[in-house]
Amino acid sequence: MINKLIEKIKATNAPIVVGLDPMLSYVPEHVQKKAFAEYGETLEGAAEAIWQFNKAIVDATYDLIPAVKPQVAMYEQFGVPGMAAYEKTVSYCQEKGLVVIGDIKRGDIGSTSEAYAVGHLGHVQVGSNSYAGFHEDFATVNPYLGSDGVKPFIKVCKEEKKGLFILVKTSNPSSGEFQDRLIDGRPLYEWVGEQVAAWGADHMGDSYSYIGAVVGATYPKMGKVLRSIMPKAYILVPGYGAQGGQGKDLVHFFNKDGLGAIVNSSRGIIAAYKQEKYASFGAENFADASRQAVIDMVTDISTALESV
Fold this sequence. Notes:
alpha/beta
């Protein structure tokens, strides 16, 4: 799957991923009203609204981007209907040829981790039949419970030829409370990065590993260090746009081949119509605003990389 992701990045010349993280407050009123008219102000109505919102944004952007990253919590909050909308979103994006990174941030041990891995990336056996539950192409994994929480995911990825992005240095302000703690004179995130590189060495695609890493755009200096520690790991970079990251902050996340990183923007794209810069599109044309935000993001990152 890492080979497919790289092919898509090369084809679109856009090392970006759109985060499909739909809070109901992001969904324009006319989309909500239509959904509520059919299903009422219920969980089913909310799920229909976010599904229609997602579909419109995907339809407006799929030709420009290689991948999407739905954040599962935004769907879980709407219960079972929300999770149905999540699966519907995953399927629709794959039908459009997009690589889907399931932002599930799972991290547990033993059989629990195995079940998460099977549910999101593998196949579950039901009698004589085998089913792929949520069938994302990649998943995000929290490694801070140790290797027994990660290895079940690696096993499934190897079987299914899918991929992982393992949390190494996250973009949130308080990440340093634990991730920056020194161990034998070095921050914890460096030790985790070394382990990601070791896991990845045994699971290589053509040029990059199936085992990637998450490193926040909000910490560019740390990103430079981690890039050297994990030369063959693709880095998923959250924190662009709404969290403060800019194209110029990202150049060190990439390798000299111009590859090695994919940058995520969520509300900066899907809620672009709410920004002053794109207000002229109006709520009725929210998907067109998202398309323009994608174009602007690609330009920003491409310009930064060309200046190196």
